[in-house]
Amino acid sequence: PGFADFDAPASFLKFNRALRARVAVYQDDFSTALTALGQSFLSTSASLDFGAYHTFGTGSGDALNAVYDPDARALHAHPSLRTDAQLQGVEDGPGESDQPHLQLNGARDQRFLDKTLDIASKTVQGITTDLIFNVYQSPTDPIPIIRNEELILLRAEANLGLGNLTTALADINFIRENSGGLPAYSGAVTASALRTELLYNKRYSLLWEGGHRWADMRHYGLLSQLPQDLTTHRRFLKFPFPINECTPRDPEPAGCTEEAGI
User: Fold this and answer.
1) Of 227, 223, 225, whose CA–CA distance to 260 is shortest?
2) Cis omega (within 30 of 0) on the bond before 251?
3) What CA–CA distance (Å, rounded) separates 218 from 262?
4) Rounded distance, CA 24 to CA 54, Å?
5) Distance from the CA of 76 to the CA of which of 85, 100, 222, 253 falls in 20 to 30 A?
């Protein structure tokens, strides 16, 4: 059922092209990414949640959604999600210059509000937080494989990589306004500043959907910016190979070397 909208060759090809675009962006092959996105299901008039999903069930042989943890037994949201969330704004009329201005209304990014819940402060493995994830509402809720919101952000990322800053900003603002409830971006229109803004939006738009944040920060050499709460913690540079993929092979694949992190 997670592929209900991609169950024919022509529509499945659009899903295929969506994945191709994601890979091309990771490879800094931005022209290929834009071509693939043009052949995908990207649409600014469709639901941002439209896409393909991993589905779960309670039937024999089915699996349950392993990141559904309503009682916060094991999974908690890092407190930086609150402190880093931008504030929404509302237009409150013309200012002295007779131009509309923004008044911050105190509410944080709508994606943060929708995807986390407050709990009593709790310390787990040395980290104290009062947030849990609220992305999945039941053990059978589907997890996105790829969806329209990511595709719009990938188009922004590809255009940014090609130096098309104004075009990239248009897609960034579309997501800011329609997903985050945020005012249009008003910072510097430079490649560096827009990359920071893009990564902010990918962080909150794709929260708890499959490791996008780590992959993005690794892609741009920014892993050192991820929180490191204890001196014993490490930011890993690569995803470890399962031991069962390593021990049967002689010599072991290069990816089987121990990763110390930073």
Assistant:
1) 223
2) yes
3) 12
4) 22
5) 222
Angstrom distance (rounded) from CA 169 to CA 223: 24
- Between CA 84 and CA 161 the distance in angstroms is 24
Which residue in the block uniquely carries the two structure tokens 């042989």? 61
Give the DSSP letter string of the chain.
-TTGGG-SHHHHHHHHHHHHHHHHHHTT-HHHHHHHHHTTT--TTS-TT-EEEE---SSTT----TT--TT-SS----THHHHHPPEEEEEEEE-TTSSEEEEEEEEE-HHHHHHEEEEEEEEETTEEEEEEE-S--STT--EEEEEHHHHHHHHHHHHHHTT-HHHHHHHHHHHHHHTS-PPPP-S--SHHHHHHHHHHHHHHHTTTSSSHHHHHHHHTT-GGGS---STT----SSPPPPHHHHTTSSSPPGGGSPP---
C-alpha span between 143 and 156 (Å, rounded): 23
The pLDDT-based confidence of 257 (bands split at 50, 70, 90) is confident
Please state, in angstroms and rounded to a whole number, the distance separating the CA atoms of residues 250 and 228.
Answer: 36
Q: 68-72, 113-117, 178-182: which range is least confident on average?
A: 68-72
Q: What is the pLDDT of residues 43-53, one digit of tens each?
A: 999 999 999 99
Beta bridge partners of 94: 100
| Other CB atoms within 10 A of residue 21 CB | 29
Structure tokens at 197: 């803004």
pLDDT, one tens digit per residue, over 116-152 is 999 999 998 889 999 999 999 999 999 999 999 999 9
CA-to-CA separations, 120 to 15, 27, 72, 84, 230, in angstroms, rounded = 41, 42, 11, 20, 22
